[in-house]
Description:
With 205 residues, the chain is α/β, with parallel strands linked by helices. It has one domain: Rossmann fold (3-Layer(aba) Sandwich). 44% of the residues lie in helices and 20% in strands. The chain is built from nine helices and seven strands; from the N terminus they run H-H-H-E-H-E-H-E-E-H-E-H-H-H-E-E. It has helices at 2-9, 12-18, 24-33, 49-54, 68-81, 118-131, 148-159, 162-173, 176-183, and strands spanning 39-43, 60-65, 86-90, 106-110, 135-140, 188-194, 199-204. It is globular and about 45 Å long. The termini are far apart.
Amino acid sequence: xxxxxxxxxxxxxxYHLFVDPVLGRVRRLVREQVAAGSSLIDIGCGTGExxxxxxxxxxxxxxxxxSSRMWSYANRRAQDQSHSNLRFILGDAxxxxxxxxxxxxxxxxxxxxxxxxxxxxxxxxxxMQRLSRNLVLVDxxxxxPANFAAVICRIIERLAGxxxxxxxxxxxxxxxxSTLLETLDLAVHLEVPFHNRCLHLVKTQ
Length: 205
């Protein structure tokens, strides 16, 4: 049921047309944290836009996506662009046993954790922690700032649908990235607030 719900909201070409352009700064900030020649796995990769933007910088890129429409769209783009260092997986990001421990230099999740249900977040982060010692996460800051940009963000999340909005509210109620990282005993190496302090990039070590 969750898979069908997500597919009904996220269609690859629509997301690429309307949402990917808005996330340009997210991709630039992530790129600044990624060393040249490194390997990276992106959780909830969507249309793969982050990975395509890193194709000239990384030796190996893997995207993991649960939405079949997003995965199909990203796969077609990768084939059309003939990137030999990039591939996409349709599956559960909490179970990536085909990859050995510490296989990747980086594991990223951008604007993804707030979309997940409460029971999904920690298992996904634990798997990311297993796969890489360097996590780069981008999501909403909690608590949000008292400004107009935060109001707009909340409206956007509400328009995404009841299921999505419920997960967003639980993410905020439970303390956002800070609480999740504390639970896993992950130290924050770098925090970069942006978009009027509504969002932040967090890098662990």
